[in-house]
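Justification of computing resources. Each target in the renewal requires a structure prediction run like the one illustrated here; the chain below, 517 residues long, is used simply to show the kind of job we budget for.
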Amino acid sequence: MSGTSNRRDVLSGGAAAFGGAALPGAARAAVASGGVRLGPSRPFTFDGLIAQAKALAAQPYRAPPPADPLLDKFEFDTYGQIVFDPKMTLWGGADEPAVQLFSIGKYFKTPVEISLVDRGAARPVIYEPRLFQAPAANPFHQLRHGGFAGFRVMNDKEPGDWLAFLGASYFRAAAPFNQYGASARGLSINSGGPAPEEFPAFTAFWLETAPDRRLVVYALLEGESVCGAYRIDCRKRSDGATQAVDAALFFRRPVAQVGIGQITSMFWYGENSTPVRRDWRPEIHDSDGLALWTGTGERIWRPLADPPRITTNAFQDTNPKGFGLMQRDRVFDHYQDDGAFYEKRPSVWIEPDAPFGAGSVRLLEMSTNTETDDNIGAFWTPREPVKAGTAIRAKYTIHWTGKDFGPPIPAYVVATREGVGGRPGLSQRSGYRRFAIDFTGDSLKGLNRQSGVDAVVTASGASIDEIAAYPVVGTDLWRLIFEIKPSDAPSTDVRAFLRRNGGALSETWLYELFPEK
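Resulting structure tokens:
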């Protein structure tokens, strides 16, 4: 997870555009004006890319050459000044995506190859400094060996972009609220694990248009331990965006922990954060919880936290129906940020398109003191160990959405609050912590205190009392209150849900409780 700091700022900053040749619409016009040069045409298929990745995995890893030291001068503002002539935007016709490219910079030093695919043939885009514009004093003009760092897909009827691939194997979408937040990764290696983390990178892209303004992205992934071939079908929808991912992975050496479908996000503090705020805004986070839909059909909500140390939780499962880092809180007043608009950050949901088998959803949380660090990660790790020669085929769809995915949850968590033990207005209970969890949903409508609703609360090695579940007058909420006295363990796992007549009324709330700071 290290190395992702400030990516949200850079991705939303300056961009470089480019045009293509021998393609329809705006790209054909750009070529007619002599704007962009393409290399020779070569046959291209996804099967061929898979074979290339497999062959590379059988060879020793070759690190990219050292970057130009001048790139260290490409700070955020400097990098943002580097733009491409919008008239050279690739495609952009009536039923086509409009694609622009990014330049290399301080945080994206390794150039990637970009090729355009048309009817089974690919032509590489030839980099030329004249494709980019920058002020005369910008160090871009001093680069001897420039290159492309990634690309973005532009909005149709409003300024800016809705999809960006930039840095290592990171990519993210701004839909449905035209606001970037969490990111996805093609693959993670030892993220938060005992072994040093690796950052395999997309080193080459092949871009192909498809009907309904779709962009099909083919990518070659290369790293010290793995090579992979990706096909990512990207589509913007009225209610968000989807990316159907087909990944073929080949490992050249053993890996302690593989992260498939990884999502990275940021959580600094929220309603459940007990320390005194370090900022004037009430809450700061891109995501507020991990949602799980298990293979058995159970729905689970795990609020995120800024822990005192690096923590990894493994949720064992077989063939999960999905998981995601969600932003459920959509109320502006809860954030009061009229620049970052955290209430508009997209939720990101991973839906397997082929069974994942046995393994675990991992939640990684790291301590942070700033909102510019991605300190949260969620991903799928197969149970079977990854050895040299292991091959994995993973197929899943990434949903960038403003709501929970899957069938409606009968009752779901909308807020988690934590404080000192003891009832308000009375003396505090030494060593106890008090929780208030708010639920809402169709299964609770019309129920009252006499309807037989109760709560099940359990915790590892801890004492629990003062349990009460009741409707909050004047709202559609049910509130679960309880107090817990943690054990002396480094952390305490807590589990709770609402039930009636022996059956669950709500999703399951999970929490990792740490000793008070």
